[in-house]
Amino acid sequence: MTQPTPYPQHTALSLAASGVPVLPLRRGKVPFGNCTACADNACGGRPNMRVPGPCRCPAPCHAWAAATTDPAVIVSPAWAAAWRRAVCVGYHPGGADLTVVDLDDADAITWARTALPATRTVPTTRGEHWIYRGAMASRNAVRPGVDIKSTMAYARWLGPGVGAMVALSDAVRALAVKEPSPARRAPQALSGLLRGGHGECPHRTPAYLERGIAMAVQRITEASSAIHATVYAAFLAVLSRHGRCGCLTDTHVARLFTAAQAKGETARHCTDAWTNARTTLGL
């Protein structure tokens, strides 16, 4: 006799079919913990939804980065075991080119009604999700009771909501912008980001490096969504090729940072993305 599909899994399959990357959430509305092989990110992780990392774990590890639209993964044995214990479905808004403004209470909703453009709304336990078309950087506590959930984040699926969804506005994007304080900015010299990299350079001509930098700059410049994730992926690609041989200079890094900041990234975000990429590669 065929067993019925668990309700969260059924919902997940329906969402995935419409292009929304999904993942199971356990009690507490949080992702399942990493398996033994992925504990402490020992597998290398999945740093970017659109550019998968070295991890090939069949289980729903790495929280938002495990979200998928592949029905074969969603019904796989490893995921099926998680769905049987899941209490609800999570999704990666940025992976679906969406941004969720999570309004946690009545005061936050009142503020949003005067400060943000009206869009599709979904009731939550204590407040509302306002959903916009377009992806951006995620950030918690942008103001009291307000979180931004888009790239590199997950949200709980609570239904399709009501109202017409509108495009992401500058008013919403501005919420995630947080410039570093002068005290933090002053010590950040680019040369400090180039530690290591003293191995033998395998590149026969400078043109190889130049092409790599130009391609990374183009990738960032042409990105229309998921900017934070795209910047990280571009940094990771450059460092994977040129991070160990010492050929990168302050000028190269400045070109990458300039391209990222032209797309709305702050200097702090650039530094964090560069440092995280180095850590991922063991540099």
Can you give a write-up of this model?
- With 283 residues, this protein is α+β, with helices and mostly antiparallel strands.
- Helix content is 36%, strand content 13%.
- The protein contains 10 helices and 9 strands.
- It has helices spanning 7-17, 71-74, 77-85, 106-115, 170-173, 182-185, 206-221, 227-242, 250-262, 267-281; strands at 22-26, 30-31, 88-91, 98-103, 120-123, 128-133, 139-143, 146-149, 155-156.
- The strands form 2 sheets. The protein has a 5-stranded antiparallel β-sheet with strand order 5-6-4-8-7. The chain has a 4-stranded antiparallel β-sheet with strand order 2-1-3-9.
- A hairpin with a 4-residue loop joins strand 5 (120-123) and strand 6 (128-133).
- Helix 7 packs parallel to helix 9 and helix 8 packs across helix 10 (267-281).
- It is globular, with a radius of gyration of 20 Å.
- It starts with 6 loop residues before the first helix and ends with a helix.
- Residues 1-5, 48-52 and 179-188 have low confidence and may be disordered.
